[in-house]
Amino acid sequence: MTEFDPAPESDAAQRRWQEGTDTFGRVYDVSLGVTSPTAYTEIAELADCSPNAAKKHLERLTEMGIVRADRNSRPAQYERNDGYLEWQEASQIADELSIDEIIDRVAALEEQLTEYEEQFGTTDPTAVSVVEHDDHEMVHERMTAISEWQGIIREIRLYELARQLSQNDGHLIPA
Amino acid sequence: MSRPPSDSAPDSTGPPDRQTLRLLERHLTSDSLVAETAFDPDSYEPRLLKAFLDMERYPESVSTARLDIRWFTMGDFTFHYVEDHDDGSQWECRWDRHPNTHNARLHFHQPPAANDITDLELPSLHPLEVYSTVLTAIEQRLEDLWSQ
User: Fold this and answer.
1) Is A137 within 8 Å of chain B by CB?
2) What's the pTM value of the predicted model, to 2 decimals?
3) Which chain B residues are Cβ-neighbours of A46 within 8 angstroms?
4) How many helical (H) and strand (E) elements, i.e. helices and strands, does chain B have?
5) B-proximal residues of A, 55-94, CB under 8 Å
6) Out of A62, A100, B11, B130, which could bridge B99 as a Cys pair, Cβ 3.0 to 4.6 Å?
């Protein structure tokens, strides 16, 4: 048996996720994984298309609200628009869950939050170090715990937004 | 899911990246190696993405194979691949990017027990590129299993 290669170099590895998608689909998918301002030329490379095509599709995604653009930088930079995507998630929760279900979920999350706060002796997850231990498994465990703790705080805020949307019939502000 | 402040501690990984997990889930469901996907605890609170691999692709000696994915807002991640074998043994490895005191931020836990850790280099840290590399590596593992 050959030794396991964690990063095989092949065309298949580079292009696996691109099967069956058109250029717009590839630019869209690449954008959803871009979390800091990135030159459109780099996005074009990831999406396997021409810089011009990438820029055209990124501009359309910006109009749709999915992407944020910084056109003042040279070359122009783009990243996913987390504000829009958060609203979209909250909107979907408001659509699918009742207000009672949202309240129940928040109550359960608040219990988990208290457990984490007691476990780590603080209410601020960013004050806890992940790498306090040399043991690698311990680092994994702490990293997962602290990340879930931060996730819980965000989930509670997302449900709060969903409840607001629900109470305003899908609008952010009352009619 | 706003961007972390630039002065945040370098050893923070941030909360689960919901958007990236959803993006990866969408691609896993259309991947020929994958039979089923699930979010843990559920799709409203996605923290862990599980992909159950298609056992029709595996030799009979492997009873289950699974890929567990975590992706964090700071760009860190873990891809944990585990095979359960009929003789009760496991074969596992993981592609990881996270702070630690003894390896590069990007590193690999070698099979079969995932205990030995080596530094890793990847052509790109974009989630879709990491995903493609991991799935292609698993495909090669499958070829090795059949030729054993």
Assistant:
1) no
2) 0.94
3) 124, 126, 128-129
4) 2, 7
5) 80, 82-83, 85-86, 89, 93
6) B11
- Using CA atoms, how far apart are residues B122 and B101, in angstroms rounded to an integer? 20
Q: What is the mean pLDDT of chain A?
A: 93
Q: For residue B130, give the H/E element and its range.
A: helix B127-147
Q: Does A148 touch chain B (CB under 8 A)?
A: yes
CA–CA separation, B29 vs B38, rounded Å? 10
Q: Which residue of B has its CA nearest to A155?
A: B45
Q: What is the pLDDT of residues A143-158, one digit of tens each?
A: 999 999 999 999 999 9
Chain A residues touching B144 at Cβ < 8 A: 1-2, 4
Tell whether the model's pLDDT for residue B3 goes beyond 50. Answer: no
Q: Which residues of A40-59 are buried (b: 16+ CB within 10 A; e: fewer)?
A: bebbbebbebeeebbbbbbb
| ipTM of the prediction greater than 0.90, yes or no | yes
Q: Which one-letter amino acid corresponds to residue B100? A: N
Chain A residue with minimum CA distance to B40: A148
Would you state the structure tokens that stand for residue B63, as one six-digit string?
Answer: 């009873």
| Per-residue b or e along A67-98, where b marks 16 or more CB atoms closer than 10 Å to that residue's CB | bbbeeeeeebbbbbbbeebbbebbbebbeebe
Helices (H), chain A: 11-15, 23-32, 40-47, 51-64, 82-96, 99-120, 136-167
What is d(CA A51, CA A55) in angstroms, rounded to the nearest whole number?
6
Smallest CA–CA distance, residue A149 to chain B, in Å, is 7
pLDDT digits (tens, 9 = 90+) for B73-121: 999 999 999 999 999 999 999 999 998 888 899 999 999 999 999 999 9
For A92, the closest chain B residue by CA position comes to B44
**In the prediction, which pLDDT does B2 show?**
43
**Beta B34-42 vs B45-53: how paired, if at all?**
antiparallel
